[in-house]
Amino acid sequence: MRYVYPKLKRIDSRDGECKCTVKLSENAAKLAKRVGLDFGTHEEATHTLTLAPLAEYGEGVYSKEQFAVTITENEITIYADTGRTASYGLKRVHSMQKHGKIKMGKFRDWPSTPRRGIIEGFYGTPWTLEQEKAAIHQLWENGMNTYIYS
Rounded to 5 degrees, what are φ and ψ at 110? Predict the structure, then answer.
């Protein structure tokens, strides 16, 4: 599978790019560890990344799987109502940091359809356990939520 980086659904403001290093709050660090994202350790981080409920973002909600992110001069906040949607926001910020393109501003994203995923159906050799694990990881990487085994 290849990585898919969809465009954001809504950009509420954009203030330019920043060169920054990120220090995760305790709850963000736990979630990043659980989903396998390594933000690195930065003793002199320029930005603190925190998690907050989506209602605190203050804009409309288009999907129960929506997340929002605000990036200011010294703070990054991911707004989400579930661990899964928060992990999507973390993944987006991690991708920006990895590619050196953290954009300051406010943006939101949500899936276009409620069910997104793959169906494992085969006519030959079934997938190995390692192949199934890799497929499930790719589901998360691409913001999908459904795996059907048939």
Answer: -160, 160
The two tokens of residue 123 are 């006519």
* Cβ atoms of residues 36 and 136 within 8 Å: no
Residue showing tokens 């002199």: 44
The closest of 75, 80, 73, 109 to 92, measured between CA atoms, is 109
Integer Cα distance of 148 and 113 in angstroms: 16
The amino acid occupying position 4 is V
**Model confidence pLDDT, tens digit, residues 12-58:** 878 777 778 888 999 999 999 988 888 887 677 888 999 999 999 98
Residue 12 main-chain phi, psi, to 5 deg: -85, -30
Rounded to two decimals, the pTM is 0.79
Q: What angle do CA 46, 16, 105 make, to 5 degrees?
A: 75
Q: For residues 106 and 77, is the Cβ–Cβ distance under 8 A? A: no
Tokens of 140: 């998360």
Please tell me whether residue 23 adopts helix, strand or coil conformation.
strand
> Burial code of 1-12, b = ≥16 C-beta within 10 A, e = fewer?
eeeeeeeeeeee
Torsion, CA 87, CA 88, CA 91, CA 96, rounded to 10: -140
